[in-house]
Design the sequence.
């Protein structure tokens, strides 16, 4: 019995050691050298036309940056053509996606005047540009429930299912696939009025 156990243990050690012996010596990275990571797809937004809602737009973008890894929203620099335009108007909030990650968002004053949270509106409309549909009626815990959650709802964060859907939509960015291989790269100019 003892010989069988010893033989089994020796075999396990050899199996575990074989990759190291056959491929050379394993070496750890020097301290301070970051491990390579997969980059998120960067989308730029231009909130210069969002009037009094500029900080709400920035905070709505930050919500998505805190919530998902596959995409990052950044303000466009001067002279840069933005993927997303954000405008303020007197109507109801809405989004006009062009392709996945591209389009126009309207932060409508009508909803703001009725008492809806400006950051929730911004994060919700940006969610449409990231490929999410409305989920109405829905609970406050769902960002994409939009106005159906009522004016008392100030939840600004996507739920787990919404996060997962955006991660899936932009999975090609993390895997290194080109934009043409990503889901949703087909034009889809559909007005989404919330």
Sequence:
């Amino acid at each position: 019995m003892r010989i069988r156990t010893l033989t089994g243990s020796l075999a396990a050690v050899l199996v575990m050691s074989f990759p190291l012996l056959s491929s050379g010596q394993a070496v750890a990275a020097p301290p301070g050298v970051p491990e390579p990571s997969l980059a998120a797809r960067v989308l730029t937004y231009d909130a210069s036309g969002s009037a009094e809602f500029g900080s709400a737009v920035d905070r709505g973008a930050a919500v998505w940056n805190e919530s998902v890894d596959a995409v990052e929203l950044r303000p466009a620099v001067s002279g840069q053509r933005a993927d997303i335009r954000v405008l303020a108007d007197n109507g109801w909030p809405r989004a006009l996606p062009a392709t996945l990650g591209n389009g126009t968002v309207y932060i409508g004053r009508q909803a703001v005047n009725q008492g809806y949270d400006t950051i929730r509106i911004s994060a919700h409309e940006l969610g449409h540009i990231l490929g999410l549909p409305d989920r109405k009626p829905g609970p406050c815990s769902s960002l994409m429930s939009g106005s159906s959650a009522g004016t008392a709802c100030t939840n600004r964060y996507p739920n787990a299912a919404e996060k997962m859907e955006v991660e899936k939509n932009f999975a090609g960015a993390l895997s290194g696939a080109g934009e043409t291989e990503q889901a949703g790269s087909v034009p889809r100019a559909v007005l989404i009025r919330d």
Remarks:
- The first helix runs from residue 2 to 23.
- Residues 1-7, 10-24, 177-188 have pLDDT under 50 and may be disordered.
- Strands lie at 41-49, 71-75, 84-89, 94-99, 102-108, 192-193.
